[in-house]
User: What shape does this take?
Amino acid sequence: MAEAKNTDEWQATACGICYTNCGILVQIGGEGGRHITRVKGDKNHPASKGYTCNKCLRLDYYQNGKDRLTDPLRRKADGSFEVITWETAINEVASKMAAIRDTHGGDKIFKYGGGGQGNHLGGAYFGPVSKALDMKYKTNALAQEKTGLAWVQGRMFGANVHGEMEHADTLFIVGKNPWQSNGIQRSRVLLKQASKDLNRTLIVVDPRRTESAALADIHLAVKPGRDAWLLSAMVAHIIQDDLISDNWLEGHTTGFEAVKARFDAIDVDAYAEFAGIDPADAKKAARAVATANKSAFYEDLGVQMAPHSTLASYLNQLMVTITGHFGREGTTAVLSALPGAFFGMSDIGNSIEGDIEVEYETSPVTGARIVSGLVPCNSVPDEILTDHANRFRAIWIESGNPVHSMADSAKWREALKALELVVVIDVAKTETAREADYIFPACTQYEKLEATFFNFEYPANFHHLRKPLFEPQGNTLAEPEMHARMVEALVPFDFTRLEQLKAAAQMGLDAYGMAAFQFMAENPDLMPYMIYILYRTLGPTLGKGREAGAIYFGMAQRFAATHSSEVKRAGFSGEGLALGNALFESLLDDPSGTVFSVGDIDETFKKLGHKDKKIHLAIGELLEEVDTLAALEDLVQLDEEFPFVLAAGERRAFTGNTMLRDPAWVKNKDMIAMAMHPDDAERLGVSDGENVRLVTRAGAANTPISIDDRLRQGTLSIPNGFGLMYPNEDGADSVTGVAPNELTSLESKDRFLGTPFHKFVPARVERTCS
Assistant: This one.
């Protein structure tokens, strides 16, 4: 047994359990000095400022999971795995991927993932592999969550925009419980402050009386699946009651007349009542948004994974925009993100005729609309399970677990089995890794340089590049090294062309920068490989364990060149290359993160992506969708066989993403139970803690129940993050809780962007004999 190396030194890093990625300080020790023994908030972190929730205290369950992978694995003919060397793994995969490319075309090789909640840096290095294999199509978890919002933002603003919740007078939160799921910096502090401040109004739209809703001044407990009617009623009330500024709209927007024509015809009271809301409360909330000096909204999966999801995103944006809550402090602003736009907007809204998008990229088999370069997740199995000539034939899966996290787990398993080659890169032997032909074992987030590119703050935007806490375990590698070796095995160009850059890197950043810009000008054919080139030329000069930071040289130089005034307002000085180098060195060296940009609200309209620098209010497809609401009929129907609405995947105090696979981290058994309203339990004759059978059209599972009067009658809820295979005390695979996507369907999805309706799954509950 290795000697324990305990230390009282606090080291800066970040929590990766949700995308807020709070800055934390940790102590390490325990057996072999490889455990995270204590955790506290990092007060020097520019965004979280010492804030944490309870979940980050359990990070050692991730760092030292019993299902950690420590060697490359290859599937044998009998279905089991054998350990192989990295040289064998890289060379065999490169050869097989190249053969598929040469025989069928690189567009038949698909990419899923490229970073989880806290590990985006490795995925950023995959681009050169994709280029070497002539790949075209990809997706990740955002395509089942955020592409509706991205499409709406692209059509309306041509840019990524974000609500400045911290300084808003009215906070409008839709389909989210920040108390448990965070997503907003210092969420519990903000919620409590807003709730206590008599000059601020907190509005929460959620069927359940969540912890956030309990703090709200106005809780709109909408009927599940009917958010679009409530939001339409609110927009209509704002328009019909003339709670808008005509001068502001005329100066900053186009298309309002088309919007007004639709919403003038809406019966506000009827829509509110159909949504299960007292019309007076809906009007009160609408007026609070419209008449506040500063309003901002935040939406999340509660509407983004529910019926009319894309329409709901549009209605939310309309509400704050037509009331003028844009381009002012405490409202909504255009973000400047470090690695470029988080969602690519260049492909959205370029071919518009009569407010309708008439030309857009689609997937090769099913013809699903691709947004921000992402194929809808619900379409992927059908892009594989077909005889179509353009079907996907191989897949790379990196830092993702689609077999567990995407709709219809059984169909995903079937699809992966049908592929000619499946390569999975991950830390643990996940449900998806078990379906692979090759498994590449990655270092954990705390054994390598790591970061997340969820920088959504305004006006001061920050980025946190985290340093390794531990040496890599076993024979694992960081993803940038895996991808570099794969490029070298594929040999897409003559690597001796890099010798001059390697020599320049030894002479310092100024010399390297000048040489790099000259190299790019003289070698335009190598631009797609520049990330690899930075890693292999500049990376070795940055110090052991810091090689992957080389990518920031390119990002810093590009950002400083295009946003120099914002970088200077953040405290950096210099011009041209010097300004970029100053930003690069700060990003690389600051242990608690760097404020890289300070925006000027007066520049917001200049950043809009449309040529006229105006907000385009009319999205024709979605205005037509508004018309369909007049029938007052649910998009997804319940029936006698499936009378309940199941929300499949809820955040609770002890739920997070599936990087925490060990069920021992959960200290409360109610966390894994299915929640049910007491009146429903009484009607079914079941009691708290009893095991029942939960049945949907896609599958069934046994689960204990937890009686919870915060739910609406007729609704059920199961948590996310459970139903994972994990070794028990005897080393055998054991499953705790319900895997939500054994119960969901690929067909139940938004008609525009294909996002799944995980929050509205028709279900029934059966008593069991046990």
Observations:
- The radius of gyration is 26 Å.
